Amino acid sequence: MSTHDDVPHVVSASRVIAANADQIFELIADPSQQPRWDGNDNLAEAPTGQRVRGVGEVFTVTLTIGEVRENHVVEFEEGRRIAWRPSDPGREPAGHLWRWELEPIDAEHTRVTHTYDWSRLTDENRFTRARATSADNLRASLDRLAVLAESGDVGAP
Question: Cross-referenced Gene3D superfamilies, in alphabetical order (predicted)?
């Protein structure tokens, strides 16, 4: 089984968003907000009331294809960093990771970096989609997130 080829297994994108880190983080750490900015057009909905507060939490989302994913939070620093590993319900995570890092520049500007890391992915059925996830997909999420944060539209979905 060879999972390594010429496609990068860690892709990332970053940009400066004209909003403070707390506003931006609220859009990321509240799963019910995620379908609003998902640049992969993969998320249909997520129940409200799942705001992430720490490592070890699990939140669920429903994909556009109707399947449910459990996301296991593996990194968390309020207002600065959050990362999760998706899994099928009741299963161990397949090994890929979504990470968001926020670096305040000043009171109204934040550098946001979005990373997709599939270097530990073990489920071969997911390799095709993982290979297709590019920095452009990540930039699309950043751009959609920026529109919401810069307009102050951080309320309920």
Answer: 3.30.530.20
Residue 31, token pair as written in the block: 């799963």
Q: What is the distance between the alpha carbons of residues 149 and 108, in angstroms, rounded to a whole number?
A: 11
User: CA-based angle 81:21:28, to the nearest 5?
Assistant: 55
Tokens representing 125 are 């059925």
**96: Cβ contacts below 8 Å, ≥ 6 apart:** 85, 86, 116, 117, 118, 120, 121, 126, 130
How many CB atoms neighbour CB 89 within 10 A? 10
Residues 6+ apart with CB under 8 A from 130: 9, 96, 116, 118, 121
Check residue 156 and give its pLDDT: 53
What is the percent of the chain with per-residue pLDDT over 70, rounded to a whole number? 93
Summarize pLDDT for 59-114 with one digit per residue, the tens: 999 999 999 999 999 999 999 999 999 999 999 999 999 999 999 999 999 999 99
Q: For domain 10-151, say whether CATH 3.30.530.20 is its number.
A: yes
Q: Write down the number of H helices and E strands in the chain.
A: 4, 7
pLDDT for the residue 2: 42
Q: Which of 81, 132, 104 is closest to 17 using CA atoms? A: 104
